[in-house]
Amino acid sequence: MQTRERRTFLLQVIAGTTALTTQVPALAADGPRPTVAVKESDAYPKSMGFRLKTEDVDKAKYPRHDVKQRCSECQLYSGEKGEEQGPCSFFKRLVPPDGWCRNFKPRKAAA
Ligand code: SF4
After folding, report:
1. 99 lines ligand 1 (CB under 6 A)
2. Cβ–Cβ < 8 Å for 19, 75
3. What's the Rg (C-alpha) of the chain?
4. 4 falls in which pLDDT band (50, 70, 90)?
5. Domain ranges for the chain
6. What is the CA 41 to chain-centroid distance, rounded?
7. Distance 87 CA to ligand 1 centre (A)
């Protein structure tokens, strides 16, 4: 192999390796769809004020909560419209579209 071909080959290997390593976190973040639903009674969701229905959130405890805030409007929810439950990337479990927790992050308005 000529020096120039060898250099080109090595640069292609480095570029390929870099592309692979930068894609791994993205693949890991997507992961498989969770199959277990969040329960209000589980310790961590409970500590996050999680409720299956946003209307049931304790207003005294979470005065900034608004009933317009719901999982289906949260950046961390990836359920499809019409589904009974969808994945929440925060809990890594399924949540109902009408649920809520204090980690609610409103979706960005479409530009
Ligand atoms: S992080 Fe968002 S999608 Fe997950 S439970 Fe809380 S409000 Fe719902």
Report:
1. yes
2. no
3. 21
4. low
5. 1-31, 33-111
6. 21
7. 9
Q: What does the alpha-carbon distance between residue 23 and residue 38 come to, in Å, rounded to a whole number?
A: 29
CA of 16 to the centre of ligand 1 (A): 36
Q: What is the pTM of this model?
A: 0.73
CB 79 near ligand 1, within 6 Å: no
Query: Residue 21: what pLDDT?
Result: 42
Written as one string, the DSSP assignment of the chain is --HHHHHHHHHHHHHHHHHHHHHHHHHHHH-SPP-SB--TTSHHHHHTT-BSSGGGS-TTT-TT--TT--GGGBTTB-PPTT-S-EEETTTTEEE-TT-B-TT--BPPPP-
- Mean pLDDT, residues 58-76: 97
Q: Does domain 33-111 have CATH number 3.30.390.50?
A: no
